[in-house]
Amino acid sequence: MNALMSYFGSKQTPGVAGNQLWALIYIFIIFAGVAVIVICMNWLERKVLAHFQVRIGPMRVGPHGLLQPFADALKLLTKEDIIPQEADKVVFWMAPVIGLLAAFTVYIVIPFGPTQAVTDMNIGILFMLGVSSLGVLGIVTAGWASNSHYPLIGALRSSAQMVSYEVAMGLAVVSAILMTSLNRDGTGTLSMLGIVQAQQQQGIWFIFKFFPLGLIAFLIFAIAMVAETNRAPFDLPEAESELTAGFHTEYSGLRWSLFMLGEYAAMIAVSAIAVTLWLGGWMRPFPNGLAGAGWDFFFALWPGLTFIGLGGLAFLGVVRMPSAQFFKIQRVGLAIFALALAGLGGLLIAITIGAHYSQRNIIASTSAGIAYVYWFLLKVAVFMYLFIWYRATWPRYRFDQLMKVGWKVLLPISLGVLIVTAIVGMIL
Amino acid sequence: MEITTLHYLVVAAALFVLGVIGVLTRRNVVIVLMSIELILNAVNLNLVAFSRMWGGLHGQVFAVFIVVDAAAEAAVGLGILIAFFRNRETINVDEIDLLKW
Amino acid sequence: MNDRTDALSNLDLETPEKPYLDSNELIINMGPQHPATHGVLRVILKLDGEKVLGTECVIGYLHRGVEKIAENRTYTMFNPYVDRMDYVAAVSNGLGYCQAVEKLLNVEAPPRANYIRVILTELNRIASHQLWLGTHALDIGAMTPLFYTFRDREEILKIFEKYCGARLTTHAFRIGGCQYETYAGFEKDVKNFLAFFPPKIDEYEELLTGNRIWIERTKNVGVISAKDAIAFGVTGPVLRASGVKWDIRKAQPYANYADFDFEIPIGQNGDTYDRYIVRMIEMRQSLRIIEQAINGIPEGPIMAKVPKVIKPPVGEIYHSIEAPKGELGYFIVSDGSTQPYRVRVRPPSFVNLQALDIMVRGMLVADVVAVIGTLDIVLGEVDR
Amino acid sequence: MNSAMAPGMTPVATPFFFYLLSGMAILSGLLVITRRNAVHSALALIVTLLSVSGLYFMLYAPFVAGVQIIVYAGGIMVLFLFVIMLVNLERVIRERQFNRMWPVGLAAACALLALFLSVFEKGKSLFDRASVPLSDKFGPENTQQVGIMLYGNYMFAFEIASLLLLVAILGAVIMTKKRI
Question: Which of B54, B61, B81 to mutate: most D Cβ within 10 Å?
Answer without folding.
Answer: B61
